[in-house]
Amino acid sequence: MSTKTEQQLQQFELPTRTDFPWVTATITGLGVLLSALHIWFNTLATLPELWVSATHFAGFAIICALWYPAHRSLKRSKLALGVDILIALAALSCLIYIPLAEDALYARGVKFIASDWFFSLLAIAIVLELIRRTIGWFIPVLIVLCLSYVVLWGQWVSGIFHFPGLSFETLLYRSFYSSEGMFGSISRISWSFVFMFILFGAFLVRAGVGDYIIDVSRAAAGKIIGGPGFIAVIGSGLMGSVSGSSVANTVSTGVITIPLMRKAGFPARFAAGVEAAASTGGQLMPPVMGAGAFIMASYTQVPYVSIIAVSVVPALIYFLSVAFFVRIEAKRSGVHQVTTSAEPLLKVLLSGWHNLIPLAVLVYLLVSGFTPTYAAGISIISVIVASWLSPNKMGLTAIIEAMAQGARNMATTAVLLIGIGLVINVISTTGIGNTFSLMINDWAGGSLLVMLLLIALASLILGMGLPVTAAYIVLGTLSAPALYKLMAESQLIEMMVNGQLPEQARAIFMLAAPDQLAALTQPMSADKAQALLAMVPADFMGTLLEQGLGMEKVALALLAAHLIIFWLSQDSNVTPPVCLTAFAAATIARTPAMRTGLTAWKIAKGLYLVPLLIAYTSLVSWDWASVLSVGIFAIFGTYALIAAIEGYLEGALNWPLRAALVAIGVVLVWPEMPLMARLAATAAFIALFIVTGRQARQESFVAAPSSSSN
């Protein structure tokens, strides 16, 4: 990679104070201490969660203040470093103050004194500044708007968003001391699940698992037509699961895969788009799905292992959709074979078999019912032990380096999640989340498709200023209740239409429509079922859904709603005008950034297809026969739709064949299609695949002699 490209890639990395050796040494030592403390917090400690969250905040605030200057131009400024040392000490003072002042505060009846005002305001100011310098202006402005809404301008707003207001003292108490603010549930998720898995990823990378993933990808796909493209899909997908950052994944694997794809004959812009799309999907790949999956587990109260279990088939559909684009482009562009690995796949797999032990341990512990934090802790130990089976043994130095790197990787995420806790506190305090859900439901008019379009649009707008995890938290808090309610009610209406409503659920209708009880035992029209459901008081709707659908289906509907939002929140990585993952890939490929973003957006179409499948089919279900059936037909349908979009299957397609493939794709992905119709559509797709392949070979055979004679 050229020096110019390296310099351009630096714009996607935060400037750091590498010119001060003592700062680097301090952060390394603090990182090791924080990693050890967090392992203790998540295993043996019994400290109050407020104290642990404050320690989490102070430790990573010190790292951010010292490591990331306020501006790129200040990275060598000693004066700026002096100011940041004061910020670091201020963060430490907030940590010291909380255990000293907490009991006295409650003894006064939660009445603030001067020091309470000072330290609560100081902590919020530190969070705002550190998020600004590591993430940008969007989130600090959002936090200020939310906090001022509670105490100031909410009372000036008319209509559904009117809020009478709280005192500034109450707001600061809820933000600083309570379990709902910056040290609340989001912070707890940060210092437990998120940090432990980021630390696990740092140990995997230090042990050489990243190199092993690339080697396996090369051996698996390097010797087939379009192999470098498939290496990008496999390698970036697996690496993204470990790294947790789409941009970091793009930079680390793209410097290998993009030049390989260009060497094989792929267009440069397409190569960059494939890398961006594959890297974006890394956070969708089990068993490690990024911070969003842990927050989802907290929101839905569905075990993390259940979330990753139902995410396997959707992730497979997404990565295969990217692979289909690769194969079609390889055929169309006449990509030649590039041998990227002389070793057979089995030999490469066996040579690094010890790298699979930590992942096997993680999956086993999760399936066995251990908590994710415990599973991550044991898996970290297994990384060290497994490394002793290889030439790259992890000793004390390597362990210290992994602990320090894990803390550095966590720093920006920690301050971000703590700051987002302030936004979530405002949403829960003011009830604006319920208001927003009602508004979305009203705009959708009872249409699930319209609601999905509204959420996708909101996700795209939020994604222009928020990282993926933050966008999911905000959008999930605001819109998941409405989406879940609509999806669950749709299932209940279907039961009413079929006359299958359970007796316990029918009893609830006695409160609203006692004269309709007899009708509830028989089939009815969808309009009548909708009208009856509208009569049920809102306070009893939750009970009705539980009695009608059962707790398992209710939990699945809630999980499906959050998964849809989680998937849609990924699209900001590849959707112009702001798509940093695609821009990073464009820098490596030396292609126009915006045009590369459009290519990545096209290739990542699975980000929109899979949420539709989750919403309208049983893709998220415990009925594995149904999941596999939906998944397999969806894979064929996705291939058909992509071929229709590209105008190419195994050979060029005319418009009638493209229209036929659209029809085939729709039949294969449309919900509740008859099995025979899907089988017929699959057979038609396979026939078209074979026919276009034969035609392409014949055209190539005819063209070969004429070109040789010339």
Describe the structure.
- Keywords: Cell inner membrane, Cell membrane, Membrane, Transmembrane, Transmembrane helix, Transport.
- Residues 123-618 form the TRAP C4-dicarboxylate transport system permease DctM subunit domain.
- With 710 residues, the protein is an all-alpha fold.
- Helix content is 74%, strand content 0%.
- It has 32 helices and no strands.
- The longest helix is centred in the middle third of the chain and has 35 residues, at 396-430.
Main β-sheet, in a few words? none
Percent helix, as a range, is over 70%
> Structural class of the helices, strands and pairings?
mainly alpha
Task: Kindly report how far apart the N and C termini lie.
Answer: 38 Å
As a percent range, the share of strand residues is under 5%
What value does the Rg take, in angstroms? Answer: 27 Å
Strand tally is 0
Query: How many DSSP H or I helices?
Result: 32
Overall form: globular
Low-confidence stretches: none
Q: Mean of the pLDDT scores?
A: 88
Task: Summarize this entry quickly.
It is a multi-pass membrane protein. With 710 residues, this protein is mainly α.
